[in-house]
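Hi all, long-time lurker, first post. I run a small reading group and we've been trying to get comfortable going from sequence to structure in the token notation. Rather than ask abstract questions, I figured I'd post a concrete chain and ask someone more experienced to write out its structure so we can walk through it together at our next meeting. Sequence below, copied exactly:
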Amino acid sequence: MSEKNTEIYTPNRKREIIKNVLIIFLIIMLILTFCSNTIMNKSLAEITTETATSGKLTERIRGSGLVESNQSYDVKIDGNKIIDTIMIKTGQEVKKDDVLFTIGSEENKELETAEESLIALELEYQKALLVAPEDYSAENQAISNARDDLNAVIAKRDNAIANKGTSQQALYNYNSNKNELAKKSKILDKLQSTIIAIDSDSYSGAAVEYTGNLVYLHDEYIKAESEYNSAYQLYTAMLTGMPSEMPPDENIDNNISENTDNTENNENNDISENARIAENISENEETDNSEYIPEPVQYNDSYDIEELKADMEYKEEIRNNALNEYNNTKYSIRNNLMNQLYSVESEIDNLNVQITNYESSQTTGGSSMSVEDYDEEIRQKQQALETLIAELNKSKSENDIANKTNMLEIDAKKKEVDKMKEKIEKLKSESEITEIKSKYNGIVSAINIKVGEETVPDMPLAVIDIADEGYTLELTVDAEKAKKIKKGIEAEVVNNWNGDITAILTDIKNDTKAGSKNRVLTFSVTGDVSTGTMIDLSIPCGSGNYDTIVPKSAVYKDSKGSFVLVVNSKSSPLGNRYFADRVDVEVLASDEISSAVQGGITSGNYIITTASKPVSPKDQVRMKDN
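-- Answer (accepted) --
Happy to help. Here is the structure in token form:
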């Protein structure tokens, strides 16, 4: 080879070659690095995030249930009748007195037997009313004598004590006793006048601080009695065809005084004591004995006898309830006042004795007995007095129980008489009945008979849901959720298309199913609903402010508990890389969209809500491009 064709590699040339090779290598590596990062990103799960926030959240419970009527009315008729026409159909709304069925009539053969039974029942009832009043005059006299003996010894003992004390202290006690006697005397006058007012059922002279609501109850009873008498007269006039205008029935009006007499017979106070109380009342004190006189009843042919009868029975029940409440309150207040009266009298007697002893001690000498001797005698007489009082109270208690038992028997016999009278009236009118009418407003929920079929006593011909009584819905929920709600809240009716349905929570009770730990929520439902309507409810459990609120769909649960996946970033030469990290949380409250949590996250953390494929903790992910 010639010298011209020989290339000479100098050191500088070699370094240039090596430099170019390194540059090419780095370029190739850089290209490979960018490509591999792009390929890897394409293989990562693409995620969507939302930022954890803070604020207010209202938790809700959802559920569905069937609406049920609060009260249903069974349409029945006595006797065996043939249904001629059915005027209603299931689901139909009916009003009070609407004709439901038309029936055939036939002769009732039970009337004569029922009238004979009524005579026997009324005789038993009248016999039960013949009860002699209790007499405690002997026991009261014995107690009065024992109290006088005790007071006499107390007076002697007090006189002995007074003689041992200084005249200044004795005078002070004397003046104090006189002041106290004046106070007690005023109280005694009020008690006496109030007791006499109660006994006479006239409260003009009564002390208002002792009568409580007795005056109001008495007025309510008089009013109820008057209304019942008017209803009874109108019904009787309609039934018997009496003249169109009648004066009030004197026999019925006298029920007021008869009830008052029965009240006085049941009082466990002695006659002599009441007489003594009456003598202390000023002769000039006026007593209001006036009674409420109802207006004459006007007869009107347009009245329906069944309506009048129902009105009479309703007002009779109100009258009886008012009388019972008035008598019970009257007995209780009077017994309490009598106990106070006895106590005040005893205190007055004691004060009088002490005052007399002091006045006597100013002119007479003392007794030879010591104070200790008097104390022992007082103790013995006190025991004797307490024994007599205890025996009297025991007798009164036993007699009171017997009287109450007798009153229960009288009430039972009265109910039997009233029931038989009602039966007789039904039997009399049975042959005239050609229509069966509704007693209430409501919705027909069932019809149990067909045209041509025969009725059976006590068999419901139809069932009517009483609209005025409202509807209820029951919903079973988890016990823990039930702790977050209270009675009285209004639930949102989700399928309330017309906007007129409301549901108010009225009761929370245990689920009666065996082994169940759930709670049953009862709602009062109003609006355009009927039995069997299915409604969906959303129940608010209360609102609260929370530090961390995340999307409900971002909260997961496994064997370790609840958790969320948050996004954390790490820097690299090629930019930030994103990784999913698990954060355990406790769910405090939830609604349909969000959950309030507490744990290792705070407001501002990025929470993974969706991903293009499953994501596990520590997985690298890529953010979805906005």
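A couple of things your group might point at:
The longest helix spans residues 371-430.
Residues 129-423 form one domain.
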